[in-house]
């Protein structure tokens, strides 16, 4: 995993890294707090198995509904409210002659905010039903009807785990991730592991097995590992899920309860994770191109598929560049040389610029594409991807 870049394509400087670390540690601290609350809840739930018991009686049992106005752009929408349901159970019991009223069925409420889940609990405890009440010896007012159940503790573990895991993974990338070497570093070391990716002063995504336009061009792009794709998808899903799932749920669905919000966030994150995983695995498929002028053929393999065609099937070449006016960022920047074969574009070479300025990368790629186009006897064109801001 590479070091997080700044807008000029270089890794974050010390000040930005420290500020980012402080923010991430604060988020991780929230995660630790939530996990600690969850552990305390589990510990108390397990301890409740040994609490003394007395006979009690249900004095009220109903489903409690809470309505919260739905807001849009800070204003309430008329006649639209979100509803959250919870079991409202009260029972009477006596400890040493003192009458006490309890309301908890378990240490943590196990309902999930829906009417059905609340109704299922209420139906178990009709009014005037005799029940066994477990109470905390030192605090008899603390009681439960089902001792030892800690299923409801997940309301602490789910958001706490996400709040701790995401910052730790990002901190690992910021402080311990290996940054990509520069093209100059690779050029200076003939034994550098990235040497096969070097071409005309550019560090490419692909490995250049052979580069002799007019004779043989052999390009290989290794497959992105499955575990790396899955891990990247999980991280991306959890992070983007905060924007698309957690924040909307907090602002528009807060009336449905914390558990509903946590479930909504995890559901959105799970869908995003699947989408990112599919996208990363498709994008990260192994790719290989072999252009042979002696045989006048091009052979290419993408994933499990492979295809052959005559060199004459290459209609043209295209140099695709990122917006030159946008801030440089080697995570999102993509400079590509594509070949149009039978009307379809295939990416032959790609680089993120590796910290070089836009004009420098463009000039080097123009030499590469010009050399290849001349050998193929085809035209090449240049296009620039415009960002929404620059296209206004």
Give, in spatial order, the strands making up the sheet with the most strands.
3-2-1-4-5
Give the rounded overall mean pLDDT: 85
Kindly state the number of beta strands. 16
Unreliable segments of 5+ consecutive residues: 1-11
CATH architecture of the largest domain: Roll
* Shape call: elongated
Which range does the strand content fall in?
25-35%
Question: Helical region count?
Answer: 7
Q: Identify the CATH class of the largest domain.
A: Mainly Beta
Indicate the radius of gyration in whole angstroms. Answer: 31 Å
Description:
- With 392 residues, the protein is an alpha+beta fold.
- It has four domains: 1-46 and 151-179; 52-146, OB fold (Dihydrolipoamide Acetyltransferase, E2P) (Beta Barrel); 207-223 and 285-384, PH-domain like (Roll); 226-283.
- The protein has helices at residues 14-47, 115-122, 154-176, 183-188, 226-252, 258-283, 358-376; strands at residues 53-72, 75-95, 98-102, 130-136, 139-144, 198-199, 202-203, 207-212, 216-221, 287-292, 297-302, 305-310, 314-321, 335-341, 344-351, 379-384.
- It has a five-stranded antiparallel β-sheet. Strands 8-9-10-11-12 form a five-stranded antiparallel β-sheet, with no helix packed on it. It has a four-stranded mixed β-sheet with strand order 15-14-13-16, covered by helices on one side.
- Strand 4 (130-136) and strand 5 (139-144) form a beta hairpin.
- Helix 1 (14-47) packs antiparallel against helix 3 (154-176) and helix 5 (226-252) packs antiparallel against helix 6 (258-283).
- The radius of gyration is 31 Å and the shape is elongated.
- The two termini are 35 Å apart.
- The relative contact order is 0.12.
- Residues 1-11 have low confidence and may be disordered.
């Amino acid at each position: 995993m590479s070091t997080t870049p700044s807008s000029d394509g270089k890794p974050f400087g010390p000040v930005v890294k420290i500020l980012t670390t402080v923010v991430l540690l604060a988020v991780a601290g929230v995660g630790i707090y939530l996990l600690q609350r969850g552990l305390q809840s589990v510990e108390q739930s397990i301890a409740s198995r040994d609490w003394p018991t007395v006979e009690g009686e249900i004095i009220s049992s109903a489903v409690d509904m809470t309505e919260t106005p739905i807001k849009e752009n800070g204003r309430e929408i008329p006649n639209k409210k979100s509803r959250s349901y919870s079991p409202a159970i009260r029972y009477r019991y006596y400890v040493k002659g003192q009458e006490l009223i309890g309301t908890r069925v378990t240490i943590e409420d196990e309902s999930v905010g829906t009417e059905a889940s609340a109704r299922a609990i209420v139906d178990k405890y009709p009014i005037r039903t005799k029940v066994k009440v477990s109470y905390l010896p030192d605090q008899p007012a603390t009681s439960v009807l089902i001792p030892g159940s800690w299923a409801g503790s997940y309301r602490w573990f789910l958001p706490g785990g996400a709040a701790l895991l995401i910052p730790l993974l990002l901190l690992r990338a910021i402080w311990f991730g290996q940054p990509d070497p520069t093209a100059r570093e690779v050029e200076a070391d003939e034994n550098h592991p990235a040497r096969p990716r070097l071409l005309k002063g550019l560090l490419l995504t692909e490995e250049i097995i052979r580069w002799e336009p007019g004779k043989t061009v052999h390009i290989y792009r290794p497959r992105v590992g499955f575990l790396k794709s899955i891990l990247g998808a999980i991280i991306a899903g959890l992070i983007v899920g905060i924007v698309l799932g957690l924040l909307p749920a907090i602002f528009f669905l807060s009336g449905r309860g914390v558990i509903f919000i946590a479930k909504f966030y995890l559901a959105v994150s799970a869908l995003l994770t699947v989408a990112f995983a599919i996208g990363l695995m498709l994008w990260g498929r192994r790719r290989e191109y072999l252009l042979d002028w002696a045989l006048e053929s091009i052979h290419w393999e993408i994933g499990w598929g492979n295809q052959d065609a005559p060199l004459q099937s290459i209609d043209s070449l295209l140099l695709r560049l990122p917006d030159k006016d946008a801030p440089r960022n080697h995570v999102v920047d993509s400079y590509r040389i594509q070949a149009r074969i039978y009307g379809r574009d295939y990416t032959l070479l790609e680089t993120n610029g590796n910290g070089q300025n836009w004009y420098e990368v463009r000039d080097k790629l123009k030499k590469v594409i010009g050399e290849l186009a001349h050998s193929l006897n085809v035209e090449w064109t240049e296009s620039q991807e415009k960002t929404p801001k620059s296209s206004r």
